[in-house]
Amino acid sequence: MATAQAKAGRREWIGLAVLVMVTLIISMDMTVLSYALPFITADLEPTSSQLLWITDVYAFVLAGLLIPMGTLGDRIGRRRLLMIGAAVFGVASVATALSNSPGMLIGTRAVMGAAGATLMPSTMSLIRNMFHDENERRAAIGLWAAGFSAGGVIGLVAGGALLQYFSWGTVFEINVPIMLLLLILAPLLLPEFRNAAAGRLDLISTVLAFVAVLPMIWGIKQFAEDGVDWPPVAGVVGGLVFLAVFVLRQRRLADPVIDVRLFRAPAFSAAVVMNVLANFALVGFMFFISQYLQLVLGLRPFSAGLWSLPAAGAAGVGAAVLAPMLAQRFRRAYVAAGGLLVGAAGCLVLAQVGDESGLALVVVGQALMTGGIAMVLTLSAELIVSTAPPERAGAAAGLSETGSQFGAALGVAILGSIGTFVYRRQLSGDAPDGVPADSWATARETLGGAVQESRTLSATAADTLVTLARAAFATELRAAALASAGILVVTAVLAAVLLRNVGASVPGQGPADGPTDSTAIPADAPGAPAGHVDPERTVDPMSSGAGVEDADRGDTDPGPVVRIGPESTGQPVRPAHPVA
């Protein structure tokens, strides 16, 4: 069984509150821009291409730099990188709010994305250093995940409220007080951790990680917006080629950015798969919810955001309460599969909405979906961080967040493509009486286009056009809900199979998870205390037998240990980690 660990104190829990606020702000910045776009368009008059980059550059840069920044934090210090990122994020937020041209806005949003990439892995990996007790760590990661899940919805509500009374720049200025608070409290509440035994950061690997992730996510998003064309295909293919080169390089380096051998661990690989597919369904389907509330049911942005708050509350309960509580009593496979099936049930509720009514179904279905998926995201984040060696927790956290971005981009692209096909199929045929052919062609592209075109028509023709478009979009939403339910059911089966040998605990965590100030001491390094045994490196937490409990829930058998790296020669070596 897992060794009893030291309990966290008041300082650690207050520090966690600061980290949750940071994740909340980062998540808010992914959605808060959506309501500000009409105001930005009127003020700065960007071209269609510039508007696309204003919308996407933050997420592109964020996704491309998550893994390199996580690795950098392991080397220079996770708290130090967090504070550097907070300062840059705050300054870039002010510059974004003061932007007076599309080019300036694109540039400042890119800087915000780069700073956000330093914050996300640092917050998750610092939790590993602050909470050594397994149950407390799981609860802390649950609160962290709840903050991230709720941030997207809160961003919609806050953005809608601010834009009713202030200029569009205020949606970015709200970041500044949180970043200032972080800079003040971080040295007082957060521990420092860096792996002093790590080698130099491999700049070639850093570049390869960026050029592998960014073009793939760009290409996937372009598929959703423009369909299959050679530029997005080239982006995805090029990204895959660079990814292959990146993986080959990591296998040959003595101190890689990401040790790809971690994927040999069933718990680690299963967690990454769950993370990608859960975000696929969650983020991909949220694209339909906001349009349904505003364009089909006719709610104002602020009201639509308020009706999404129950979903944010359900995400908080699922991530911070249910996942930690159930994971203490049941195997990860059961908890993860159960959460995914709850999410699938929510999708089936959403598949019942109509084109004239359905608010109650949306509220209930969205709450079930987000609550169930939030449980899974908590478990996947905990497994990824807990099974990776402590000196690589930052890189593992970056990989986790990169998987989230991939899943989100794939969800928007694939579910969006399915929805577009269904929508256009519903509106096939000739234009109805009174509706010009040009207006009908525009209406067949998007529901937003149909609503816009209806304002140029007579009352009768406008009513006909909007009614048909809303009915088609409701059918589109139902199809996407069924597709999301199918994805979640498949993911539940995968979770049940891949995690079947992972018990209710992850054994092998050392009492302190490694020193929290400078480095982790290898067990065989000179100067290690006599009889010193580092549990992190002598018990294999990632083997297929990790956490397997016998029939009477007795002791576990972690199985044989296989070390990576050279045998001890009496000389200092970089810490190795066990891989099954």
TrEMBL record:
Q: Which residues form the Major facilitator superfamily (MFS) profile domain?
A: 15-503
The membrane topology term of the UniProt record is:
Multi-pass membrane protein
Name the PROSITE patterns on file.
MFS (PS50850)
| CDD domains, per database record | MFS_MMR_MDR_like
Residues passing through the membrane, by range:
12-38, 50-69, 81-98, 104-127, 139-159, 165-189, 201-218, 230-248, 268-293, 305-326, 333-353, 359-385, 406-423, 479-499
- Domain of life of the organism encoding this protein: Bacteria
Q: Where is the composition biased (Low complexity)?
A: 520-531
Gene3D superfamilies assigned to the protein according to its UniProt record, in alphabetical order: MFS general substrate transporter like domains, Multidrug resistance protein D
Spans annotated as Disordered: 506-580
Primary location recorded for the protein, binned into one broad class: membrane
Question: What keywords tag this UniProt record?
Answer: Cell membrane, Membrane, Transmembrane, Transmembrane helix, Transport
Q: What is this protein called?
A: MFS transporter
Q: Cross-referenced InterPro entries, in alphabetical order?
A: MFS (IPR011701), MFS_dom (IPR020846), MFS_trans_sf (IPR036259)
Q: Where in the cell is it found?
A: Cell membrane
Organism whose genome encodes this protein: Micromonospora antibiotica
